[in-house]
């Protein structure tokens, strides 16, 4: 259950927030899409490094 919750929070909630957080000030679909794809990958990589996996 923990992995499902982590997936929902990181991939859906944070990705959507990053999209709108980048789209509204910059009005750029490309920057918003790239940011919403990159941020969850960076978060997952950071969590893996912290956990030592």
Quote the beta fraction: under 5%
Q: Which H/E pattern describes the elements?
A: HH
Shape: elongated
Mean of residue pLDDT? 93
Main β-sheet, in a few words?
A: none
| Portion in helices | over 70%
Residue runs with pLDDT of under 50 for 5 or more positions: none
N- and C-termini, Cα separation: 19 Å
Work out the radius of gyration. Answer: 12 Å
Number of strands: 0
Structural class: mainly alpha
Number of helices: 2
How are the elements arranged and paired?
Blueprint: H1 2-26, H2 29-51
Helix pairs in contact: 1-2
Describe the 3D structure.
The chain is mainly α and 53 residues long. It contains 2 helices and no strands. It has helices at 2-26, 29-51. The model has no long low-confidence stretch (mean pLDDT 93).
Please tag this protein with its features:
53 residues; mainly alpha; 0% strand; elongated
In short:
With 53 residues, this protein is mainly α. The chain has 2 helices and no strands. Helix 1 (2-26) packs antiparallel against helix 2.
């Amino acid at each position: 259950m923990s992995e499902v919750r982590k997936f929902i929070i990181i991939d859906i909630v944070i990705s959507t927030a990053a999209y709108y957080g980048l789209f509204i000030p910059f009005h750029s679909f490309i920057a918003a899409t790239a940011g919403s794809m990159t941020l969850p990958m960076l978060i997952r990589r950071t969590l893996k490094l912290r956990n030592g996996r």
